[in-house]
Specification:
Order of helices and strands: HHHEHHHEEHHHHEEE
Radius of gyration: 30 Å
Helix content: 40-55%
Structural class: alpha+beta
Strand content: 15-25%
Number of strands: 6
Length: 340
């Protein structure tokens, strides 16, 4: 260090202040992986990766259609609500089956409505039906129908902006969980390789010992023994290469942070939304030539999380009024009571 540096030390690099959303996600990651803060400069390395993930997910979430009202009244006027539910009375009935929605209204007694994410399984079926072409009615016409079931309401917010922020946070958390799953898989692989290495070394020792005593003197099985030792040596070498690729155990924390930062920086590989554009009749029959016939297209967002066993799920942002909330269905009726 020069004399000038001692007299006038250089100011440290100033980083942009962290947003509340970034701070909340860093805190959440520390809960999921408490040892992260043992890595030198972990926060300076993690924050940029998190910011890139937030930016990517926010771009998707901000591009989603506006929340639509989910009610019996809009079932006849909103083609999306009409497609999601089989009948107008089903809207309130299905929405009210969510314990999370009931809990949210209980926690917000002054709220008149809740903004929620309505997730659904979109099922595409091919079959035969009736179709009219001009003045003629044709039967046994090949048709494709869409149906929506397994409705789930899990995330609720006070406003649409609040809901979108919650979606961003949850998706980024899910991406981070994918990174932790990879780390866990690496550790399991390391344990398996170490056990395999111990067995291979034991196997080699046994083969080497077979070359002692009378076996060497009489030359019995010498060629077969040499070939077997060579095969085991090759397996040991491959085992060592795979272990080296996983890094040293002493570098496990560094490796963990590197994996998390890499996954967060490449969020598009772990979460994306596909916009499915279709033309539907009121009976949810797909109109193949809908554009030519002047039909109105419906665009359904499909969320895809590669780590999720459910695969793609259709979803929509909706508003649901407290006045339409029905009591939770009882798990047991009067006949199921235990008689003592």
């Amino acid at each position: 260090m020069s004399l000038f540096d001692k007299l006038w030390p250089r100011a440290r690099t100033q980083h942009a202040p962290e947003s509340p959303q970034l701070q909340a996600l860093i805190g959440r990651l520390l809960v999921l992986s408490p040892t992260l803060n043992l890595v030198p400069q972990w926060r300076e390395r993690l924050a940029p990766a998190l910011e890139r993930s937030i930016e990517y997910v926010s771009g998707i979430v901000n591009g989603l259609p506006a929340a639509r009202e989910a009610s019996a009244a809009t079932w006849m006027t909103d083609p999306y609500v009409h497609a999601f539910f089989a009948a107008p009375e089903e809207v309130a009935h299905i929405m009210s089956r969510s314990p999370e929605l009931h809990a949210w209204f209980d926690a917000h007694p002054l709220a008149r409505e809740a903004y929620t994410v309505l997730g659904m399984a979109m099922v595409e079926r091919r079959g035969f039906g009736v179709a009219q072409h001009g003045d003629q009615v044709h039967t046994d016409v090949a048709q494709t129908t869409l149906s929506f079931d397994d409705h789930q309401v899990r995330v609720c917010g006070e406003s649409e902006a609040d809901l979108r922020n919650q979606i961003v946070q949850r998706v980024v958390e899910q991406i981070a969980l994918e990174a932790l799953a990879q780390i866990s898989a690496d550790e399991s692989r390391r344990d398996a390789l170490e056990q395999e290495r111990a067995l291979l070394r034991t196997r080699r020792q046994l083969l080497t010992r077979r070359g002692a005593g009378t076996h060497t003197m009489l030359g019995a099985e010498s060629n077969a023994n040499v070939a077997e030792v060579a095969r085991v040596d090759a397996e040991i070498a491959e085992n060592e290469r795979e272990l080296a690729a996983l890094g040293l155990k002493s570098e496990a924390l560094e490796h963990e942070l590197d994996v998390i930062c890499n996954v967060l920086s490449n969020s598009a590989q772990h979460a994306n939304v596909e916009m499915r554009r279709v033309f539907l009749t009121p009976m949810n029959v797909v109109i193949e030539d809908g554009a030519a016939r002047g039909g109105t297209p419906l665009v359904f967002p499909l969320a895809h999380l590669p780590a999720s066993p459910q695969g793609k799920r259709a979803f929509s942002l909706v508003r649901f009024a407290r006045a339409d909330l029905q009591p939770l269905p009882r798990l047991f009726d009067e006949h199921s009571r235990i008689v003592i």
